[in-house]
Write a sequence for this structure.
């Protein structure tokens, strides 16, 4: 699922193999609310786009995944912008403070590990942080997060 019709067209042409691999154009909130068979999922991946979810949408998506996708055992949120290391991305002397919380900015929302821990906890997920290998292009300002359901 992606909100870009162009990317979905490419995915459909090159990777779609129904019924197991199907691609659709949708907003993340709308998709998780409307998915007709949420119990069929055991894993979820959101790579490179979670930073572009407005704060309210991030809550809605993670909460809805926890409530409706009851067989989901893992979510990987990949390529997240690390607020504590934003200075490693922006050029020296640039005031980037007004961009850190803007989902429409160049990098989207920069979240700290504490921000993500709080988000995960209030939506029913435990969280582990994973660090990029040093050779990864954004290793000095990005990280991944692995979410697993909190036990009831």
């Amino acid at each position: 699922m992606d909100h870009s019709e162009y990317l979905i067209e490419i995915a459909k042409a090159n990777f779609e193999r129904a019924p197991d691999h199907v691609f659709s154009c949708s907003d993340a909130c709308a998709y998780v609310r409307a998915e007709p068979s949420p119990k069929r999922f055991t894993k979820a991946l959101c790579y490179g786009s979670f930073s572009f979810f407005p704060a309210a949408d991030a809550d809605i998506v993670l909460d809805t995944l926890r409530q409706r996708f009851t067989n989901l055992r893992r979510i990987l949120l990949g390529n997240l912008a690390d607020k504590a290391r934003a200075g490693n991305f922006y050029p020296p002397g640039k005031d980037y403070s007004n961009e850190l919380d803007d989902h429409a900015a160049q990098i989207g929302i920069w979240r700290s590990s504490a921000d993500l821990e709080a988000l995960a906890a209030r939506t029913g997920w435990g969280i582990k942080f994973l660090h990029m290998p040093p050779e990864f292009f954004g290793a000095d300002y990005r990280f991944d997060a692995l979410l697993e359901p909190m036990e009831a």
Remarks:
- The first strand starts at residue 43 and ends at 47.
